[in-house]
Amino acid sequence: MRKPGIAKIVWIVLAVAVLAVTVYFGERDADIVMIWAMLLLGFPGSLLVLFGYAETAFLWHTYIADPLVGGRGLFTLFVAVLWSALFLAGYAQWFLLLPFLVRRWRSARERH
């Protein structure tokens, strides 16, 4: 079994730190900072997640958050769901898709 590379460890630590800071500082614009930080960590794949977020944010705030009188629980749920989606998109992009494409490119290059 291969050991994780330093880039993977640093990326995961940064992503978890973003989540910890967001939860620690709470509702005061922490979610905006989280979105920007995770966008940078997972760019450009995280853009796809944010496009999906833009579509669901309206529904979330209109039909779920406001009628239920908000609160810390809904903020934490919102942060957990969005962070998880951005984390998975960034992880898949950098540590699954990119290595696969590099291996494929190298093998195709060696054949020709």
Written account of the structure:
The chain is mostly helical. The protein has one domain (6-107). The chain has four helices and no strands. The chain has helices at residues 6-25, 30-41, 46-65, 72-111. Helix 2 packs parallel to helix 4 and helix 3 runs antiparallel to helix 4. The longest helix has 40 residues, at 72-111. It is elongated and about 60 Å long.
Please provide a brief summary of the model.
The chain has helices at residues 6-25, 30-41, 46-65, 72-111.
Supply the key terms.
112 residues; 4 helices; mainly alpha
Mean pLDDT: 85
Q: Outline, from the CA principal axes?
A: elongated
Backbone structural class: mainly alpha
Helix segment tally: 4
**Count of discrete structural domains:** 1
**Could you describe the largest sheet, including whether it forms a barrel?**
none
The portion of residues forming beta strands comes to under 5%
- Radius of gyration, CA atoms, in whole angstroms: 17 Å
Could you tell me how far the N terminus lies from the C terminus, measured between alpha carbons in angstroms?
Answer: 30 Å
Count the strands? 0
The proportion of residues forming helix, as a percent range, comes to: over 70%
Poorly predicted spans: none
SSE order: HHHH
